[in-house]
TrEMBL record:
Pfam families: Spore_YunB (PF09560). Residues 228-318 are annotated as: Disordered. It comes from Paenibacillus amylolyticus. It comes from the Bacteria. Residues 274-297, 309-318 have a biased composition (Polar residues). This is Sporulation protein YunB. Residues 244-267 have a biased composition (Gly residues). InterPro entries: Sporulation_prot_YunB. NCBIfam families: spo_yunB (TIGR02832).
Length: 318
C-alpha cells in the first residue's frame, strides 16, 4: 500500500491591497510632516523661547541674590569696622581705607550666601506659556507651558568696591557696594545656554564733610554764600586789545598798546620824521597834509608834500 507523502508548500505572499498602500503612504507623510514641523519649531521658536527663559532666569537669580544679601546687611554684619578713617593733626578727616580683614570676611560670607541661594533657585520649577513666544497679547497666557530650569555653573565672583560723588561744597558721599557676578545655565527642552548674572548691592553710605567757605565765586565772577555781599568784586578780563592799522604802499601799519607806544612799519615812500626803529613816518591818505596824528598819546608832526609829488625831507633832502 502506497502512502502519500505530505509536502509542505510555501504560501505565496499576497501583494498588499489598495487600502494598505494608502495607510502606508499616509503614515510616511505624517512622519515627514512631523519632522518638518519639529524642525520649523526648533528653528523659529527656539530663539524667542531662549530669550524669554534668559530674562526670567536672570530676574529670579538677581532677586534671590539681592534678597539674601539685603537680609545679611540688615543684620549689621557687614559694615562694622569696614572703614578705617584717617585724620590730620586738627582731628579732621583726611582720608579713609578699607580694612583688609573685614573686606575678606565680607567677601567670603557673600560668596557663600550667593552659592547657597543659587542652589535653592536650582530646585525651583519655572514654566513659560508658549503663547508668550508668539508675541501676541491675546495668546500670552495660552498654550502648553515650557519648563525652564537654572543650573549653577562656575564660581561666584564677589568684589567689594567704593565710589565717590559730590554732595555739596567740600562734601563727598562715599558708597560701599558689593559687585557680584555669577555664571548660570538656562535649560529648556532640547537646548541649554549660559547666562551671566551681574548685580550691585550697596551696603553702606558715608558722608565726608570738609570745611565750607563763607562765600565762593561762580563762573560769572559773582560771589555766592551767606556773606557774599561782603565779598570783593572780581573783574574778569575781557581779552580785548587796541589795534590801529594803516594801508600798504604809502602808509604804515601799527598796533597800539596801553602804554602809549606806537610802532609803524610801511612799504613805500616815507616822511622825514624817524621812529625809534630808524623808520620814517608817512602821512595817512585819510588825513590832510600838515595835520597832526595822535596814536595813544604820541603826537607826530608831518610835513606836506611838494608840488612835484615827492615828500620833503628835513635831513637828506630827498
Amino acid at each position: 500500500m502506497m502512502r502519500k507523502r505530505w509536502r509542505s508548500r510555501r504560501r505565496r505572499s499576497k501583494p498588499p491591497s489598495g487600502k494598505r498602500k494608502v495607510w502606508l503612504i499616509a503614515l510616511l507623510v505624517a512622519i515627514f510632516c512631523l519632522m518638518q514641523g519639529f524642525a520649523y519649531v526648533d528653528k523659529k521658536m527656539k530663539p524667542p523661547i531662549m530669550h524669554l527663559a534668559k530674562i526670567r532666569v536672570k530676574q529670579i537669580a538677581t532677586e534671590a541674590i539681592n534678597k539674601a544679601i539685603t537680609a545679611q546687611v540688615a543684620e549689621g554684619k557687614t559694615t562694622e569696622g569696614l572703614i578705617d578713617w584717617k585724620t590730620d593733626t586738627a582731628g579732621k578727616v583726611s582720608g579713609f581705607m578699607l580694612n583688609y580683614n573685614e573686606h575678606m570676611r565680607i567677601t567670603a560670607s557673600t560668596m557663600n550666601v550667593v552659592q547657597s541661594t543659587l542652589q535653592n533657585v536650582h530646585m525651583l520649577k519655572e514654566k513659560i506659556p508658549l503663547g508668550q513666544v508668539l508675541g501676541s497679547p491675546v495668546m500670552a497666557s495660552f498654550g502648553p507651558s515650557i519648563p525652564v530650569r537654572i543650573e549653577p555653573q562656575g564660581a561666584v565672583k564677589v568684589d567689594l568696591n567704593t565710589r565717590q560723588q559730590n554732595a555739596g561744597i567740600n562734601m563727598i558721599l562715599v558708597e560701599v557696594y558689593i559687585h557680584i557676578i555669577a555664571e548660570v545655565a538656562v535649560v529648556v527642552p532640547f537646548d541649554m545656554e549660559p547666562e551671566t548674572v551681574d548685580t550691585e548691592i550697596p551696603i553702606s553710605y558715608l558722608l565726608v564733610v570738609g570745611d565750607v567757605p563763607m562765600y565762593y565765586y561762580d563762573n560769572q565772577g559773582r560771589p555766592v554764600g551767606s556773606n557774599g555781599s561782603n565779598a570783593p568784586a572780581i573783574a574778569l578780563p575781557s581779552g580785548q586789545t587796541g589795534v590801529s592799522s594803516g594801508g600798504n604802499g604809502h602808509t604804515g601799519s601799527g598796533s597800539g598798546t596801553n602804554n602809549g607806544n606806537d610802532n609803524g612799519n610801511g612799504n613805500g615812500a616815507r616822511n622825514s620824521g624817524e621812529t625809534p626803529g630808524n623808520q620814517p613816518q608817512i602821512p595817512s591818505p585819510q588825513q590832510a597834509p600838515g595835520s597832526n596824528t595822535q596814536s595813544n598819546g604820541l603826537e607826530l608832526e608831518l610835513d606836506p608834500p611838494d608840488l612835484n609829488g615827492s615828500f620833503q625831507s628835513g635831513q637828506n633832502g630827498h
